[in-house]
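Need residues for this backbone.
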């Protein structure tokens, strides 16, 4: 038996409480199992138990076997001297604390059906362990859980944003620019786009926001795409040559150093997603009067937000995918999927973190509303959930399902998941059913 399962039994009182007694046969009544501790120290803090007429307050430690108390060195650790109860699956040894006092040890007895349901979840071959039984879970509890998973996922994205914010000296414009640019490359060119934003500061971009040609010269130049030899067919291309001339002036003015143009990937990409097209679209997005970040924060509805993000590349790219090679004329406008990627991974998380850091609750709520109005991702994981009977109607729910699949299902954290909790406890009445909605 895994220790985590024992924690689960104790936390939710899923054991035969009438059989809980000390070595002398005195019944132990659990008034409060304590606060679950995921860090160092005893497993549950501030528990309260009654033995006869005496109420004890302190900590609870759990092990699959009593002898593990000594194996883990708790018998020599004063931090465990306040343990009032040692809960085990197998009581194979008397144990003592660092003061030489015996630690009260009890073995839990429980319904074997709970353990069998737990084993069936963590040992079945499906990545989504509960996919055949998930329809048993109450939809309201499921929706509440998915809402918490969205917050968890936003918290993970917040860590990246706050790290960039610290690197940029708490400059929100620079931070938004870097995070946004990072996701212009999708998965394939994410790192080169990230390098581009770091090599070309936003303070320079902002000085030329009213001139799209200069923005393209700056972005293409620093990206290394104007270096000799990268696009041999463009040597006589007028627009390409003009960009080179302009970049020479700007790079000298700002002491800019181009990246290695060969790091950009074109193979196995649809032409509309070539980094050349995407850089031009980025330039168009950054050429916003009043600053892109300010406009994003001020956006009152999804329509305003989409107007800022659903940009087209410059005129040259209507009949080009790379420099110097003409193609069928088509307007290169950022599509629904590309816009959704920016909204989900950059725009909405930055709005949320900015609102949270400034105490602007309305902005945080607006960010979540925008997420609920954004198209859900379409990928293998979302299809797995769809086949299990759960369809993501928006990015709010697809993000939650991605978090659930990647952080819980894949690691078999069924005991930390409300869905797993409900299925393992199926047909068992909890002492406090509402607790499942507070902390799984």
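Answer:
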């Amino acid at each position: 038996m895994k220790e985590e399962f024992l924690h689960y039994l104790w936390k939710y009182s899923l054991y035969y409480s009438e059989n809980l007694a000390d070595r002398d046969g005195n019944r132990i009544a659990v008034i409060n199992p304590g606060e679950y501790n995921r860090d160092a120290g005893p497993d549950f803090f501030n528990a309260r138990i009654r033995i006869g007429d005496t109420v004890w307050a302190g900590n609870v430690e759990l092990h699959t076997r009593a002898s593990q108390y000594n194996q883990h060195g708790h018998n020599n650790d004063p931090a465990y001297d306040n343990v009032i109860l040692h809960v085990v699956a197998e009581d194979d040894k008397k144990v003592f604390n660092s003061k030489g006092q015996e630690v009260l040890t009890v073995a839990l007895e429980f319904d074997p059906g709970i353990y069998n349901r737990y084993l069936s979840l963590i040992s079945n071959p499906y990545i989504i362990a509960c996919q055949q039984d998930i329809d048993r879970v109450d939809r309201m509890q499921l929706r509440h859980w998915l809402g918490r998973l969205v917050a968890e996922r936003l918290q993970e994205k917040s860590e990246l944003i706050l790290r960039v914010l610290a690197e940029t000296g708490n400059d929100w414009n620079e931070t938004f620019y870097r995070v946004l640019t990072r996701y212009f490359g999708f998965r394939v060119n994410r790192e080169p786009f990230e390098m581009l934003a770091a090599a070309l500061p936003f303070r320079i971009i902002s000085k030329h926001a009213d001139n799209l040609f200069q923005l393209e010269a700056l972005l293409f130049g620093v990206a290394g795409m104007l270096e000799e030899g990268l696009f041999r067919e463009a040597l006589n291309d007028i627009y390409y040559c003009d960009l080179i001339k302009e970049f020479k002036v700007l790079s000298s003015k700002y002491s800019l150093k181009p990246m290695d143009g060969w790091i950009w990937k074109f193979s196995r990409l649809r032409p509309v997603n070539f980094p050349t097209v995407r850089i031009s679209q980025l330039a168009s997005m950054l050429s916003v009067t009043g600053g892109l970040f300010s406009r994003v924060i001020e956006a009152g509805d999804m329509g305003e937000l989409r107007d800022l993000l659903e940009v087209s590349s410059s005129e040259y790219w209507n009949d080009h995918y790379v420099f110097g090679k003409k193609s069928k004329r088509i307007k290169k406008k950022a599509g629904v999927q590309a816009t959704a990627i920016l909204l989900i991974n950059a725009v909405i998380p930055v709005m949320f973190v900015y609102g949270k850091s400034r105490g602007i609750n309305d902005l945080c709520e607006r960010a979540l509303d925008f997420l609920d109005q954004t198209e859900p991702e379409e990928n293998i994981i979302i299809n797995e959930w769809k086949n299990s009977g759960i369809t993501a109607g928006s990015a709010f729910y697809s993000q939650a399902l991605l978090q659930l699949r990647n952080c819980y299902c894949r690691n078999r954290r069924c005991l930390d998941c409300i869905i797993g909790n409900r299925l393992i406890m199926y047909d068992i009445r909890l002492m406090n059913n509402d607790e499942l909605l507070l902390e799984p």
